[in-house]
# Entry
Amino acid sequence: MKHMRKFGILVTSTALTLGIATSIGHAQSPYEVQNEKVAIEVQNNEVEISKNVLIQKLKSVFPKQFDFLANSDFQLGNAHHYPDDDRIRYDLSFHKTVKGKDVYGSVTFVGDELEIENFYFEPIDTSEALFPAKVSKEDARKIATDFLKNFPDGKNYEIDETNVGYHYHSNQLITEPIRYEFSFVKKHNDIPISNQRVYVTVLGNGEITQLYRDSQTSSKATYANSNLVKSEQTILDKVKKNLSVSLKYQINYNYITGEESVALVYHPSINYNGLNAITGEWQTTNGFTKDAPKVAKIEKLTSKPLSPKYNGITIQEAKKIAQNLLKIDSDKVELKIDSVHEYENNSGQPFLSIQYSYNWEYGGYGSTIEMNKKTGEIVSYHDMRGDVLRELGENTNKDPLSKKEALNKAIEHVKNMIPSYIHDYAKPIDEPYLEKGRGIYNFAFPRVVNGIIVEGNQISVSVGPDGSLYSLYVNHLDRDNWPSTKNIITSENAKNQFINALSLNLQYMKLDPEATHYELIYSPVYNESQFSYLDAITGKWSSILGESDQPVVTHPSAEEELNFLIQNKILEVKDSNSFNADTSITNGEALKIIVKSLSHFYVYDTVELEKSVQTFDNIGPKHKLYTVVEQAVRMGILDSEDSFNPDSNLTKEQLAVWYIRTLGLELAAKNYDIYKSNLLDLGDTKSEYIGYITLSYSLKLISAENNQFKPKSEVTYADIATSIFTLARSIHHNKRYY
# Structure
């Protein structure tokens, strides 16, 4: 990633909106590539808008919500605009401590009408947004919809239920407020415009806390005539007539566990993004064509392995390699190798991460390159020298090469940079994407295993207008056993399933980021989701997001709590019919619920952190609860002096210990002789448990009947499902987050 520091300008991140689905051949989702947007500051004497005007505008959009803030609590940032958008933007932020709690937020206004483009607000009190939230999702949807209607063009937006975002963490913390996220798409002639969206977040207490608008609309924008659109059936028939399928290996990544897996799948063979809804022409990466795009044949880069560049390198040698690659032809710029970090990839192979920077009198850029330590080959690289020279006012623009010339250069770079990899890869089968403004071609060299393309494993290469290597990235999964092609469904069966699952989305799309005209495009969707794929072994549709419908359970007193835990992947239930919430829960299962309720839980992060640590002799790195247990130790729920039997049933006295430790009250609990309690059965427990039990009961974390705590009784799934939310509210109130 590129790091920047500049004076006199503001920088936003590069927007490369290829999306998750672009690695799936059958999804064919259209994409845009937007050049880096450099925000240019406006001199103060050119700005006519005062801070007070912006404050009044904010308060008019959110009546009474910010009355507790004085004008002096707001800070006004520097006004700015973008090279391709002359509208001036104004940043307003606020931060204030109210009753010992920090309140902060920010808002960006754009244009003469001061429309809100970005808004973020963290309110003082979010307790009513905790489960069970004050407002339901249906209520929140109405709040968001009504709010959007207040904007000048708000009535032209419609909620998009298919665009709900994607969260990589596995669980919604129950100590955090519930947030409902909604996506709205703008329509023209009742047809969605793909890049004109508004995202609204409604807190569970009914407050709007976030808003983001894609402000790419130009007053010069033109739209294709919707009266000329061909019928959906006509386009469907055309797609079905040209549809064929092919086998591919697909790399699926689990963001929760960090594991990569391989699926054998069927993909449509034809390479296109959609069809022009008026002409019926096929939309490819670089424009339209009348004829259906042909399926390229697989042609390996080399038939046999080539020798690596080096047979192992030292850190000093790696620095020299980096310096030779990164040297820049300018006396004004200093190249500095800042650090070299050695690490292992998921397969245990050693790699080097080299951090470097270009520095000049008033600024600098920084980034990293990744290098295979065994071969000395660079597997991740981005050339920033052009950016640096442009920043210094030197003209680096050149006419682009032809596609053939650029491809030859890309192959040359691949063979020179990473020779030991290329026997596993083939020449590009997809059209390269040309960034017209910069003359950069982007190629993808697919990996081939057993004669089958591997989706999700490729060498990405970008070539500049002078033929130089602009970027290189090797995505390579080390794996010996690949799914067998035996006993898979036939290609004819798969083709029929694709035909039956095919539907079309009609939308306005801007095919060139710098253009102002929107074309009408029919985009194919299979199985009602752009993330779906057809498993060649099972013959069933699956999702690359790993989505599946969570079971719903019933219970007389804990149904709502149980289902919330299930839907948020905290409680794992495979079959709702066989699940009995009134059965006793084991120590291991209960601890997992507590840990996942209170902390974002990534198995691979915890393994990496704890791989040299083992608290309990019986819970080693290979144990299924190892990461849970070590996380619990780190959170203070378990103590290294304890013993832990994951298979024993959890008792109320043990749960009291865990809850009190979670609240950080163990020191108070240990002084058990200071407590007086109306519980009648404290004699049934050891004296060391009395303080924990008394505190947990007085804080209403764990209940008792008729003054009987029953410390030795076993805890059920329903018990922990209800009590964990009481604990969560106490944690939230005291801001003791994990």
